[in-house]
Structure to design on (347 residues):
């Protein structure tokens, strides 16, 4: 059984109760592979398999994207999620890809995606928290160089948009029930819980990182900013990694596909519109998961562009993506009055 940042016993109890009471048909989560540093996605269907689940948060792939690719609509599925996973799922629900009532989200606290190769993790226990990484009994401080850039900007270490969330406090996990389903599960599992999420101030460190990244762009003139991004786009090899990794890109017939005339085939780098069209399609719904940038072999800082534009749109429309399932994406509901307002610089 995994023994990392969270009280794994609590999570195993919750997962076992979900399956034994047939509240879901299976649980999508990351499990230990060859060793504790090797994380493998797995669809758990038997209660005795619950102990395989790993609660480390550095796994590299979005579960919301995996749900989109392999989930079956109408099937009741549970997921062990970070905040960006939960937010991506909520955005997919808004786009009528899944029914929220069919999904049970159990949130785990996350302090960022850490690549095991960057901190020398071999075998042994892995514990990741805001204070550092503990591997095999040895503590390793989390430096900025070990965290993904988008994780440095993340404001939501605890996924309060899930049905249940676990927050580490001392050496135990505190359980928060955030929906009626969550309350029912905690009660069935015999676990004490608090209703709703307490008001937690946004992480100042994350807001500081946002200011640093966004202000650097805003200090450029529109011409300089456009030149900066066009030079970044010139590195693109049109591998479609950003599109394929994004949890919000769900269209089966994509305007940017090789069988469409929007983007010419056989040209590298692709036309600048390749990136701008995708940006326009999801700019109001970016959840800062960083999957696009993580998948890019050219290391284009694409998540910074998406997150910066999203923050402008969020401020203008008073909208946060992936939080309220009943609140539609603003660009799909924009009015003439809103179109006449300034405040978002697309250049």
């Amino acid at each position: 059984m995994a023994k990392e940042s969270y009280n794994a016993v609590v999570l195993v109890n919750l997962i076992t109760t979900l399956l034994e009471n047939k509240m879901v048909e299976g649980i999508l989560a990351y499990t230990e592979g060859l060793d504790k540093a090797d994380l493998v996605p797995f669809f758990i269907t038997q209660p005795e398999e619950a102990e395989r689940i790993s609660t480390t948060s550095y796994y590299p792939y979005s579960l919301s994207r995996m749900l989109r690719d392999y989930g079956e609509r109408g099937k009741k599925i549970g997921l062990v999620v970070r905040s960006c996973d939960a937010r991506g799922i909520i955005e997919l629900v808004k786009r009528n890809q899944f029914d929220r009532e069919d999904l049970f989200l159990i949130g785990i606290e996350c302090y960022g995606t850490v690549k095991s190769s960057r901190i020398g993790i071999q075998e042994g226990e892995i514990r990741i928290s805001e204070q550092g990484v503990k591997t095999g009994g040895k503590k390793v401080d989390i430096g900025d160089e070990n965290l993904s850039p988008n994780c440095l900007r993340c404001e939501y270490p605890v996924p309060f948009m899930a049905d249940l969330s676990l927050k580490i406090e001392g050496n135990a996990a505190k359980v928060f029930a955030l929906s009626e389903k969550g309350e029912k599960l905690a009660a069935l599992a015999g676990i004490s819980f608090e209703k709703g999420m307490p008001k937690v101030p946004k992480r100042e460190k994350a807001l500081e990182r946002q200011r640093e990244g966004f202000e650097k762009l805003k200090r450029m003139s529109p011409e300089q900013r456009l030149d900066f991004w066009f030079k970044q786009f010139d590195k693109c090899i049109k591998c479609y990694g950003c599109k394929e990794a994004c949890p919000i890109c769900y269209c089966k017939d994509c305007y940017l596909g090789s069988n469409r005339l929007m983007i010419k085939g056989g040209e590298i780098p692709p036309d600048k519109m390749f990136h701008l069209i995708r940006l326009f399609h999801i700019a109001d719904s970016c959840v800062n998961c960083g999957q696009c940038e993580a998948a890019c072999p050219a290391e284009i800082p694409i998540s910074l562009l998406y997150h910066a534009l999203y923050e402008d749109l969020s401020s203008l429309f008073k909208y946060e993506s992936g939080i309220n399932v009943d609140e539609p994406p603003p660009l799909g509901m924009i009015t003439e009055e809103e179109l006449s307002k300034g405040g978002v610089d697309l250049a």
Remarks:
- Residues 8-195 form one domain.
